[in-house]
Amino acid sequence: MKLTDIRDNSGARKNRIRVGRGIGSGKGKTAGRGQKGQKSRSGVAIKGFEGGQMPLHMRLPKRGFNNPFGKDYAEVNIGQVQKLIDAKKLDAKKVVDHEALKAAGVARGGKDGVRLLGKGELTAKVSFKVAGASKGAVEAVEKAGGSVEQTGAKKAAAAE
């Protein structure tokens, strides 16, 4: 086989049909659009219209809602943090915040900050500065000798 023998598979490339170019082309006059009517004209898009029948997107029930006040946190487990410290991707002596966790590649997204969760075990003494933390995560960090500073709005304080 030579480089000049290389061809596309048959049917891989298809030429575009030039419609409305005379009776001999087989797609002349009305160009495959039939006679008169809305769909024979240019600039028509009838997406979702079902001839007066209730369209599918209106027949199906609506579900759920978007909370305009909901917060978007990047959720990080303390087990993940311990793995990063063991792998020397995170410095336990410095304060661990959103930027440090993002640089380590564990806090993806989270435009409202990081929320610390209690899955896994933490053995290193680490001080965290995060938007929020679960009760279990705070207990685990303090048990290991670290501290958690929460910068996010406290729900408990608002409830009292």
| CATH architect. name of the domain at 74-152 | Ribosomal Protein L15, Chain: K, domain 2
Biggest sheet: strands, sense, closure?
3 strands, parallel
At the first level of CATH, what is the class of the domain at 74-152? Alpha Beta
Termini separation comes to 81 Å
Could you give the order of strands across the largest sheet? 1-2-4
Secondary structure class reads alpha/beta
* Strand and helix order: HEHHEEEHEH
Portion of residues in beta strands equals 5-15%
Computed over alpha carbons, the radius of gyration is: 31 Å
**Total number of β-strand segments?**
5
Give the overall shape: elongated
The amount of helix comes to 10-25%
Mean pLDDT: 86
**Separate helix tally:** 5
Looking at the structure, the CATH topology of the domain at 74-152 is Ribosomal Protein L15, Chain: K, domain 2
Unreliable runs: none
Q: What's this, in brief?
A:
The chain has 160 residues and is α/β, with parallel strands linked by helices.
Question: Could you explain how this protein is built, in words?
Answer:
The protein has 160 residues and is α/β, with parallel strands linked by helices. The chain has a domain at 74-152: Ribosomal Protein L15, Chain: K, domain 2, CATH 3.100.10.10. Helices cover 21% and strands 11% of the residues. It has helices at 56-59, 78-86, 98-103, 135-143, 155-159; strands at 74-77, 114-117, 127-130, 132-133, 147-150. The model has no long low-confidence stretch (mean pLDDT 86).
